[in-house]
Amino acid sequence: MKVVVVSAGLSVPSSTRLLADRLADTVCDELSDQGHKVDVDVIELRALSAAIANSLVTGFPAPQLATAIAAVTDADSLVAVTPVFSASYSGLFKSFFDLIDPDALTGKPVLIAATGGTPRHSLVLDHALRPLFAYLRAVVVPTGVYAASEDWGTGGSAHTEGLPARIQRAGREMASILVTRADGPLSEDDPASSRKQLSDLRFD
């Protein structure tokens, strides 16, 4: 199985990249425990920022960007992580996915995650990231992971899950979707199958 990680972190080191790596490691561990071999490819959008801007203007991706787009298109699943800017995903993150063919992510499992300086932006997962990938007809993993600065190194409380527990749950959900698909064709009752059938409909 091929898992592609898209990280839109801008700094080095980056908490966005750190969260992306922990999510990918969890997915890989869950899949390996069930006997599946996993290949992980990490795409750092920071290194592609100039190529993304040029491609938006010219319509032609540079070779390195074209390789990244092909990796996303060919992946079995995505882990997509962005920092929060102005209460939404970063412009770099959105610009990259604007370059992806709108049909390329149809039915593809996507684990969404975001980082920010304050927990007040945690709803970015549901008001920005989830609608973006729903529009692209991807299958968004139920648990999205948001990490504020204060979440790193904490274990949660009696009323909330800590960051490690959220990462573990999201990784487990992603692995479960991938294992189900690997073990056999989608049944007619599978929600992912229904989404695929709906995406194949044309209304023009």
Describe this structure in words.
The chain has 204 residues and is α/β, with parallel strands linked by helices. The protein is 45% helix and 18% strand. It has 7 helices and 7 strands; from the N terminus they run βαβααββαβαββαα. The protein has helices at residues 15-33, 49-58, 63-74, 91-98, 124-135, 163-182, 191-200, and strands at residues 2-7, 39-44, 77-85, 88-89, 109-116, 139-140, 145-148. Strands 1, 2, 3, 4, 5, 6 and 7 form a 7-stranded mixed sheet that branches. The longest helix has 20 residues, at 163-182. The mean pLDDT is 90.
Key descriptive features of the protein:
204 residues, alpha/beta, 7-stranded mixed sheet, 7 strands
What string, H for helix and E for strand, traces the elements in order? EHEHHEEHEHEEHH
The helix content, as a percent range, equals 40-55%
β-strand amount? 15-25%
Per DSSP, the total helix count is 7
Through-space gap between termini: 35 Å
Strand runs, count: 7
Radius of gyration: 17 Å
The low-pLDDT segments are none
Q: Using the alpha-carbon principal axes, give the shape.
A: globular
Explain the layout of strands and helices.
Elements: E1 2-7, H1 15-33, E2 39-44, H2 49-58, H3 63-74, E3 77-85, E4 88-89, H4 91-98, E5 109-116, H5 124-135, E6 139-140, E7 145-148, H6 163-182, H7 191-200
Helix pairs in contact: 1-6, 2-4
